[in-house]
Amino acid sequence: MLGCFLGGGCCPLVCLLALLLPLVSLSHLNQHGPRSDGARDRPKLLLVSFDGFRWDYIDRVPTPNFHRIIYEGVTVERVESAYITKTFPNHYSLVTGLYAETHGIVANEMYDPALNRSFSMETDSIYESRWWEEAVPLWVTIQKAGGRSGAAMWPGSDVKIHGMFPNKYLPYNASVSFEARVERIIEWFSAPKDAAVDFGVLYWEEPDESGHNLGPQNSLMDVVIAGIDEKLGFLMNELKKAGLYEKVNLIVTSDHGMAQLSPDKIIELDEYVSRDLYTWVDKSPVVGILPKEGKFDEVYSKLADANPNMMVYKKEDIPEHFHYQHNIRIMPILIESKEGWTVVQNRTAPFMLGNHGYDNTLRSMQPVFVARGPAIRQNYVKTSMRSVDLYPLMCHILAIPPLPNNGSLSNVQDLLSLEPTPSTAPSIPPRANGYSYAPVVGSFIGVVMVLGFLMVYIRQVTLKQLPSLKHRSREMSQPLLQEDLHL
Ligand SMILES: [Zn+2]
Questions:
Q1: In this structure, is residue 129 part of a structural domain?
Q2: How many angstroms is it from 163 CA to the middle of ligand 1?
Q3: pLDDT at 425 over 80
Q4: Which residues form the signal peptide (predicted)?
Q5: Is residue 12 domain-resident?
């Protein structure tokens, strides 16, 4: 048939090729094309958070391991965390792509008037699912998509959320060393194919704790930062030893930065309003104030212009760019201290030298961000992103559809490798009943190319070796030969 299309008499060889090539092409597709067992050969991603690791720590002391990742991958100079810049809200923003007002973990300490319950890091209330279920973390989403996840101490990862825990997780225990957490993560990624995790999250409490106690400007922080770099080096080395370093996309970031405090910068609320008139929710530097019934106007008017080093917002007046208004767990009045200021009821409260929670546009509140791996671009410095943009980026790398979120993949697409690799290519869902033209078009192009090659080749052979052709199979060669000679 194709021989006829090319002109002249019909050639059996051409017809045979025309019949066989589409079959070969389809057979190839079946072997190597989209697979229905989505769990196999999934891209791998490990997200690491060093709590309170401010963006500029990596240039303060030698941090060769952070810089190795930047050289092999990317860094982002300005990452805007979600408001308020506290630990629980931001760790949940990183894995949901949502601002706190949407995912519902609006502070480390919360009160929900509808539930009439309080949430506190100091109590088991953090294990109550209902606090977390205004959003779906990425580990749940990937598991619902047929993938597997593992979590080492990430806030919220040991809570049953929408009926699920991560496939593998460690119940929170601050006394478990970083190295032990890494060993478990490596074990989970290294498991046999059917059991290996695709998405891992790893949390470490430092340098936040030291930042609070010492203050970020303290020279003793240098040792702490160098120690974190060594821990990162340990992780990289363990990934290499397990043969995972080139397979796993590694993202290292933090929930927020850290600001230097001063004992001279204290705001004492008792000077302005009686504590009998309100309930104090969450801690400095951003405090939720719940006035007692009928006392809203009195409390607000006493606080509003009381101290120039704090902003006092009615809930409905909280600036739009904070995305921190539309949730019942955000209190009717919000006090936000200016950078470096501490708000207390009186000076008997314990005092810290470093803190976070302030305005997320402040440079001191911004975290580190470095990443490397098969899906990540090499040796690239990006100027800015929002931490909520990380979620759609991770979904893209993991080849799973993101849930609705406040981030934008287009804001961070330049962090991706320029050359698509097998691990970054989005998985194509298997077509149950659909029909694709791709195999037909591919086969047709293949047939035309092979025929073209054959015609040129045979022309050369027959011109050079005309006498010997007499001894070959005339059925195969002669029609082409005759046609060819008449061209
Ligand atoms: Zn902290």
A1: no
A2: 29
A3: no
A4: 1-26
A5: yes
